[in-house]
Amino acid sequence: MTAPTGPVEDTFVEVMGGVCTPVAVVTAFDGDRPHGTTVSAFASLSRQPPMVMVALDERSDLLHIVRRTRLVGINVLASVHAGLATRFAGKGAEKFSGVDWERCHGLPRLAGTSGWLACDVVDLVLGGDHTIVLGRVVGAGSRPAEPLVYHRRSFGTHRALDAGGVTAD
């Protein structure tokens, strides 16, 4: 089976751009050095046991670390964290410089995020040019905040609507 090219691939990209996705920074340690990358391909998988899935690019330095350590942290970003999302989406060794974080469950945890999950890697599944990391949640933390979402190649947030379709504030 070959990958779609031309109009199908272009349309696929357009369709997926219209899907709102959560934004998270996935983290791990390489020795004592923290690593992290921004992702928008992240979702819950199972309640019993609690599991999540996150897709990492096959070329990602972080994926190589996760393969070795079998640990992954997921920092779910709030609407005020667009700057963090942009920072961790880039390349370079200084992503954590000036960022408030701590070691939690043996993983880098960013301060002030709306959610935190520490996971043991259960399996890695190849999916095209990405690998899907299946993680069993071994630690979690949460605080109420509007989510940071990615839609049409830009960051935004979600506001709940009432039954009549009016923003509920």
Automatic annotation (TrEMBL):
Gene3D superfamilies: Electron Transport, Fmn-binding Protein, Chain A (2.30.110.10). Keywords: Oxidoreductase. Residues 16-157 form the Flavin reductase like domain. It is an enzyme of class 1 (oxidoreductase). It holds the Pfam family Flavin_Reduct. It comes from the Bacteria. The keyword Transcription regulation does not apply. GO terms for molecular function: oxidoreductase activity. PANTHER family: FLAVIN REDUCTASE, FMN REDUCTASE (NADH) RUTF. This is Flavin reductase family protein.
